[in-house]
Amino acid sequence: MTESPYVIDDRETPRFRVRRSTMVASEILDEERRQIFDRSWLYVGHESEIPAPHDFRTRSVGGRPIILTRHTDGSVQVFINSCPHRGMQVESRPQGHGRFLKCFYHGWSFNTEGALVAIPDEASYGENFDRQNLGLVHPPHVASYRGFVFLCWSADVVDLETYLAGAADILDLFADQSETGMRVIGGTHLYAARANWKLLSENSYDGYHALTTHHRYLAMLKASGKDLQSVFRSSGGTPALGWDLGNGHAVIGGSDGSGGNNTGLGRDLSGPALVKQIARRDRFAELYGADWADRMFSGRNVVIFPNLALVDLIMGITIRTYYPVSPDYMEVSAWSLQPSDDEPELRQMRQENFLTFWGPAGLATPDDIEALERCQKGFAAHDQAPWSDISRGMVRSRPAFNDELQMRVFWREWDRRMTGTVHPLEGPALPRSGRLALPYVSANQ
Ligand code: FES
Ligand SMILES: [Fe+2]
Fold this sequence. Notes:
Elements: E1 2-3, E2 7-10, E3 15-19, H1 26-37, E4 42-46, E5 55-61, E6 64-70, E7 76-80, E8 95-97, E9 100-102, E10 109-111, E11 116-118, E12 141-145, E13 148-152, H2 160-164, H3 167-175, E14 182-193, H4 197-204, H5 210-213, H6 215-223, H7 228-232, E15 238-246, E16 249-255, H8 271-288, H9 290-296, E17 300-304, E18 308-312, E19 317-326, E20 329-339, H10 344-356, H11 365-378, E21 387-389, H12 405-419
Antiparallel strand pairs: 1-2, 2-3, 3-21, 4-13, 5-6, 5-8, 6-7, 9-10, 10-11, 12-13, 14-20, 15-16, 16-17, 17-18, 18-19, 19-20
Residues 83, 85-88, 103, 105-108 line the site of FE2/S2 (inorganic) cluster (FES).
């Protein structure tokens, strides 16, 4: 038994419990900001969102406004969107293009590397004016992995790849899906939920809730003629399991062995499109081996601690981040990721699903939000009903995708950061092993 004020991790019974006050207390959120959001690598965006020099995007990362730009030399830059003069947000548009960023207040101008390049009437500052040190401030750390850009607000952090641990392999599974590069296309979904941010980490890889929370969606698919049995049946691949990826990251997924003939919950591809999709899978099998190609084409849900979720259901890939505004309110941003050389029919399906399945008014997300908001309402009685139970699958040596290992992985890291309590691993963490060497999981494990 490992126990903190917030998490009881009992391996004997076994039983895993989390105290619901962690979802409502403002002191907890203050501490989360210090111990988690200020000390983790946080997702900023995808390099494809700023394809050309002088493109920019603005957003908020870890509670601070930032600008993501591509500089003249092609480098990706991130700096704080606050003017060194008197603090104004230099750029207010969510995205745009321009060689210079000019502050609206008094007209200071910066280049796409953040350097201060022009000040109206600079002479009034005198000869000793140090323009070099009045550029836009960069976060202590910015790094990219396979096109995914991250920052850390603390100087004291391990390098990004070390932080990602086994999750780097999972990002490879996304990045490898195109020989011409993955790209974020379309717009951004921005929505909010009256729920604690951690509930969306839990929900993003919750394989347990699909059949109940989303039963109407599944009924609709069935009524439209979709063969749901074939979606959930493994055709010679490996079963979908939950995996600890180290450092609080976890994934659910498997390898269905369908050879490219799988659109998940999406509609079936037409003959010619299916032929092309199978050819793509065969091409990737040549490049990376059949095991890796099968995994790529089988989808997965991963949460990179604390608040980056990537969900690949084949019929679409969504990237989402979410931040607390208060203990019971979060803001969510979501993007659609696609192979830039995708088969056109599949591309269209993926874009449609980004809107109609994952969208804030889609067929899945409102059901999830409803569930999360009603959990939050239940937490009002946390004094009387203090514990949530997250034990499912603890009795199995290989927890399945619809067990709750992945949430326990999240909470053990959360507890380590918040209280210093070290919970032993439940099973082996999937190490970073490199795409060519990695058998995901053999069916007989
Ligand atoms: S605050 Fe930006 S120029 Fe004054
Ligand atoms: Fe859901």
